[in-house]
Amino acid sequence: MFLQTDDQTIEDLRLFAKRESNGIYDIYNNASTRGGELLLEKMFRQPLSDKDAITERASVIAAFAKAKTIFPFESSLLDSVEKYIVHNEEPGNGQKTVLGEKEVSSGVNAFIGLFHSVKSFAEQGAIVGIEELQKERSAMLALLQDPALQPVLKEQPGNRLSYGAVTAFDILIRVKEREKVTAVLNFIYLMDVFISVARVATARNFVFPVAHPRASNILKVRGVYHPELKEPVPNDLTMHAGKSVVFLTGANMAGKSTFLRAFSTAVYIAHMGFPVAARHLEFSVMDGIYTTINLPDNLGIGASHFYAEVLRVKKMAAELGAGKSLFVLFDELFRGTNVKDAHEGTVTITHAFAGKKTSLFLISSHIVEAGEELKQRSNIGFHYLPTRMNGTVPEYTYTLEEGITDDRHGMIIIRNEGILETLATGKKKG
């Protein structure tokens, strides 16, 4: 079972590299194989929504981290095997490429060496002590003992093969038993992902989340931070049925968007069963995660930014109306319209969200007056990121506090930058 999400959320959380900026994927990508990288990307695009599957994956990665396991297969062998195997596939022009005698011989020898390495790992590697991988281990041991692959197993790595033997092995590996060979490679790619993510967890001191059953409606995060920041400020936040909505306020530059990304990224990664950038995280498994941080105008349907926001809220309403448990985040709800409509819309929609107590909602807003009106709902919590004034210079703690702030320092920043003076005289005073 996979977690429901969408491209907007993937873009908001910057999961993948864009232009010259790396994504969250790049932080976790320590894979040794191209196949491992592709599998890791698939996991990023398909988080889990099953408690047992999440817990099992987290336990596997944690076990490899505890054992300080190093990827046990030679990258050079894998490179040779992958290049060798892929040449049997159809290229874009519909014609098969033909490998030379030397390339075939190198590929066959590389696969023989890799096959023996997999056998060694399955029989006596770190996987032996990991209970959650015994099904995969048993399946691989059975495949290695398959009568059709016994010629590979009997041949010792490094032996010089005759032309006839190379030809026979080539037909066996790339044609007759190609599915079994692919299964061996897929096993290696899975181990690559687990071991590489385990190394990232150790190197970065990431924590393994604790998953709770669906509808238990708990989200407890301690010391969460954004993993891309060099000097992050960690924050704590707890949500539950009695506080299923959090209304976040704070001035511009106070760190709201960074906190929202850090928090929602941790929730998303936790559903992958991966370690997260926090000191502690426990969560109830959700059906879906949807964020709205940087919502573009939908020019394809002639939609303004405000109408795009309305459509986004409508989508959330449909998902919630179907009885799904969701984690929903809106940064500056209805920023695309005038203050009066934004105020009324924020209050009305937040009230409606508060009635969906099997889901969790995180909503930020500049409209602090809306927060005052929302206090009548007992399951709405209020937090803010403060601004401290040092004379005329605003300073930011980036540390979450309870309550609602009326910090508004936009004009102070504008004056500090000398914009009005520049417009009036053409230059800023020293």
Automatic annotation (TrEMBL):
This is MutS-like protein. PANTHER family: DNA MISMATCH REPAIR PROTEIN, DNA MISMATCH REPAIR PROTEIN MUTS FAMILY MEMBER. One of its GO terms (molecular function) is ATP binding. Residues 243-424 form the DNA mismatch repair proteins mutS family domain. GO terms for biological process: mismatch repair. Keywords: ATP-binding, DNA-binding, Nucleotide-binding. InterPro entries: DNA_mismatch_repair_MutS_C, DNA_mismatch_repair_MutS_sf, MutS, P-loop_NTPase. It comes from Pseudobacter ginsenosidimutans.
